Amino acid sequence: MSIIIDQKEKLFTIHTAQSTYQMTVGKFGHLIHLYYGKKTEGDMRYLLTYGDRGFSGNPYEAERDRTYSLDALPQEYPCYGTGDYRNVALHVKNPDGTYSCDLRYQSARVVEGKYSLPGLPAVHTEAGAETLEVVLADRQSGLEVTLLYGVLADSDVITRAARIRNTGSETPYLEKAASCCLDFLYGAYDLIHFHGRHGMERQFERSSLLHADQVLQSRRGVSSHQQNPFFILADHRTGEESGECYGFSLLYSGGFKAEAAVDQYQQTRAVMGLSDEFFSWPLQQGEIFHTPEAVVCYSARGFSELSFQYHQLIRYHVCRGEWQTKRRPILINSWEAAYFDFDGEKIVEIARQASELGVEMLVLDDGWFGKRDDDFAGLGDWAANEKKLGCTLGEIGTRINALGLKFGLWIEPEMVSEDSDLYRKHPDWAFVIPGRKPVRGRYQLVLDFSRKEVVDCIFEQVAAAIEQANVEYIKMDMNRHLSDIYSHTAVFQNQGVILHKYVLGVYDFLERLLQKFPKLLIEGCAGGGGRFDAGMLYYTPQIWCSDNSDAVERIRIQYGTSFGYPIATVGSHVSAVPNHQTGRSTNIVTRGVVAMAGSFGYELDLKLITPEEKAIVRQQIQDYKKYFDLIQNGRYWRLTSPFEDEDYAAWEFTAQDGSEVLLNVVTLAAHFNGPSLYVRLRGLEEDAVYRMEETGAEYPGSALMYAGVPIPKMTDDYQAWQVHFVRK
Fold first, then answer.
1. For residue 582, how far is the Cα from the chain centroid?
2. DSSP state of 241
3. How many CB atoms lie within 10 A of CB 663?
4. In this predicted model, what pLDDT tens digit does every residue of 439-468 receive, in sequence order?
5. What whole-number distance in Å separates Cα of residue 235 and Cα of residue 187?
6. In this predicted model, what pLDDT tens digit does every residue of 354-363 receive, in sequence order?
7. Is residue 502 packed enough to be buried (19+ CB in 10 Å), middle (13-18) or exposed (0-12)?
8. Active-site residue numbers?
9. Residue 58: helix, strand or coil by DSSP?
């Protein structure tokens, strides 16, 4: 068993393949954290120390014992009101206006299988998982908290969530309800997080933890471009191949908050969950509130191993359905080829050219519906503009299918234009505060997806379009953040309730699409990577990584993304040059190499490329198919950091059994009379011999890993070198 309960000693131990997690019940009934780290055996209570801590209060039952203080002890789910002044996981406002909660241990049990969360994404598994349920309660208020620990032992994964139930007779407010807390008794850690902006998401940043709150959060109603709900705590000495590190990933697509701080006694606490700035949940008698799920992982072998754990988990235990592991169709998207300026004939012509080169799907982007000739009108009216198209949507789909291509559509279901039939009919369906002019984003407003009738209406329209045209792919976009939160169905405008219900409404919309169209491939998008999180990947097995399709900028974006998310989930295309976002020109070989580190596709006007480039496109498509299993199911290695290495970027895909390797290098700077450059490979068999397919040269695996291979001289910036090694 991976979970061991010692009822006599009130000691709870979780073992995974490489780690151990242990907690106990303190002498006054509090759930105390003991250890999380490299796998070990035995009772870890000896690690706890006690002392008379000035200005750190003691439970009433402690009487004259001043050595027991929750302000100094490590805890599993600390709450405000117990004398612990650090960041807490639970903050409750009682009906009388006081803020207090005192959770004490009630019971624990092991449940076969992994728990699920109603209306929320959660890690899934067919067999082999277990759940530890630990029940805590506040005796005075009747608030009961069941801590859920899902254990996928072979994957080295522990999931965390809380089920909060009101067994009392009054209505308290949950002002903060985090998904997990992790306390460290000692150690010096760095915080690694992934900040950004629209068009430059998930930028790697590493800094030492301070004796101060360091907060990562989104107040934007979505997980956001600016911060990502994934972070790492790492020993100062940890690198790609060695050292201890801990990952935290939240399966939630709305506002979130992650906190980390070193306390006055050199202990570190990390808390992660919903944003408490916009959260206030009245918990009615008998009601249950489920927090989103967090996934924690531990690695003793550096960042590469930690990333691999998350890659495997998301690939096989978060993503679901028809497209979980299948190769996705190589597509061409119409956006950069046509923008809003198209008719049906132009779209079919784009499809015809793409078909000749081996592309497998045409995606019709923005502009096919309503009165949508620019971004000032039409959102909310999800019926085809047949006057603009010159035919029905079904006729376009039929013509594209006849060319041997699948057909896909772009939608933005959560948004509405003021110039739309939907808004004119239902202005109260948009987030607008009465008497105030709303904040616009991309000249559009946000629909109130916390209301079922709104979700129903949009779902029915989108489903009708899918059925009409044999649509097999949806790109679901979202091009602004939330503001002016006001729901006409709410008597009291509690923004915290509305925002969370909004996210639940988005999840409901996606789940209904997948239930009705089980073979539909949905790609998530929010102005590119503004909602790139593990929660969205439960519904959409790939996400458009960034609206910035410049190959050089994408190297940094995809580097940061790779720490917590697998290559299979990264939407990445070969786009036009000069690049439409940066103006940079990069050769089509380099653009292809960078785009292959994702779900491969094209976003350009194929009429404008040369015959030589068309030949390269044909070869890229063949290569991607050839290397698909290696790229998508192999181990991904970051060989360099584009934030530290100025001359070149390198990454590698290695088969799980070490039988083959695809090495990718892009030069970032060319120098006159420059030095020779070398790159060391990883994940090979030391005693095996590997043949470079392109040249026939043979190398010992140990030599490739410890001595490296020279990079060919390249006479310009942004040249690419991609080579394939096969074990003899």
1. 26
2. S
3. 22
4. 999 999 999 999 999 999 999 999 999 999
5. 8
6. 999 999 999 9
7. buried
8. 533, 613
9. coil
